[in-house]
Write a structure and sequence with these properties.
Blueprint: H1 12-26, H2 33-40, H3 44-47, H4 53-67, H5 81-98, H6 102-106, H7 114-129, H8 134-157, H9 164-178, H10 187-191, H11 193-196, H12 202-219
């Protein structure tokens, strides 16, 4: 008779909550099975009943992030395709930035989990309904995700976390820093300093997002 495994006092949801709490306090680099187990009062061996090592932990955390992205707007017949895609892009950016270490987590491996694939499927439906061939829709779906997630990585590296007040404070800091640089050879940058300082803001993100979407749909 096979002996019973360790008592499952927690759920996988609890484990992922603990992992995000650890990342919030110490960053993604500090994430390990041993540290998450200690935080939850488990042995590392017991934690393996919930996740398959650090890689499994990361994968589950990415799925948590992706599962928080609302997809209903991509099928909303009351909106144009451009409006649906813009709302999706804004929601994807906001969701990733709001999760502790979300931007770094997204880059830990391929986005091939259940929620990530559901997101891609919803994008394909939206893009083909706008007139793109399925092949073009697949390329466009990838390009849109790259634009959003690449921008999110730059924002996170700059200290952004989705908080509008934090975003504004960082823009002020960047503007002040730009004023410290000599203008020799940087005349155009100096002239557009107010815009450059706001590169990692929702305003700039939305500007770029709308133009990426317009280019995709016009090409159809």
């Amino acid at each position: 008779m096979t002996p019973p495994g360790p008592a499952r006092r927690l759920s996988e949801h609890d484990v992922i909550d603990g992992a995000f709490a650890l990342v919030r306090e110490h960053g993604v680099d500090a994430l390990s099975v041993r540290r998450v187990a200690a935080r939850l009062g488990l042995t590392p061996t017991a934690l393996y009943t919930y996740v398959d090592g650090r890689a499994g932990l990361l994968r589950a955390m990415v799925e948590r992030v992706m599962g928080g992205i609302p997809l209903a707007m991509l099928d909303d017949a009351g909106l144009t395709a451009a409006e649906r895609l813009e709302q999706f892009g804004l929601a994807l950016r906001r969701t990733v930035l709001e999760h502790p270490g979300g931007a770094t987590l997204i880059m830990t491996g391929p986005l091939d989990g259940t929620h990530a694939l559901a997101m891609n499927e919803a994008l394909l439906r939206c893009l083909t309904s706008a007139g793109l061939t399925l092949d073009d829709a697949a390329r466009a779906a990838y390009a849109l995700q790259v634009f959003v997630l690449g921008t999110v990585m730059l924002e996170a590296a700059d200290g952004g976390d989705g908080d509008p007040q934090r975003e504004e404070a960082l823009a002020v800091e960047r503007r002040a820093a730009l004023e410290q640089y000599p203008v020799d050879g940087l005349a155009l940058t100096a002239e557009t300093g107010d815009i450059v300082a706001r590169y990692n803001t929702t305003e700039q993100f939305a500007w770029g997002l709308r133009r990426v979407i317009a280019g995709m749909l016009t090409a159809s």
